[in-house]
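Hi all, posting the design record for the shared folder.

TITLE: backbone redesign
STEP: 1 of 1
STRUCTURE INPUT:
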């Protein structure tokens, strides 16, 4: 009888592992496609970043003609840094949503 229990336990462990792998794959795809938008204080700069941290677009509103280049560079750097923080926070939230499900795997008994 212990042999049957061991085989049953192994089968359940394999199934839980497959479910975990599926969650990991889905999480990776979601993180790569989830977009976050961050703006400068005056809304003139927008950085769009994935939850994975990849900048997909930078949008500038208004004219750059009368802007101080050093000030503009500082603002752009601040928005990019903010986008990195927003991406990390989005990843953490998605991680909790996806892997919070793991607690329920195999506990239907």
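Okay, here is what came back for every position:
SEQUENCE:
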């Amino acid at each position: 009888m212990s042999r049957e229990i061991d085989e049953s336990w192994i089968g359940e462990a394999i199934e839980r592992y497959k479910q975990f792998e599926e969650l990991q794959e889905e999480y990776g795809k979601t993180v790569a496609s989830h977009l976050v938008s961050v703006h400068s204080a005056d809304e003139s700069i927008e950085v769009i970043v994935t939850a994975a941290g990849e900048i997909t677009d930078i949008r500038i509103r208004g004219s750059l003609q009368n802007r101080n280049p050093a000030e503009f560079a500082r603002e752009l750097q601040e928005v990019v840094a903010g986008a990195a923080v927003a991406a990390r926070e989005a990843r953490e939230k998605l991680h909790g949503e996806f892997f919070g499900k793991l607690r329920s795997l195999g506990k239907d008994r």
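COMMENT: The first strand starts at residue 35 and ends at 39.
Let me know if anyone wants the other runs.
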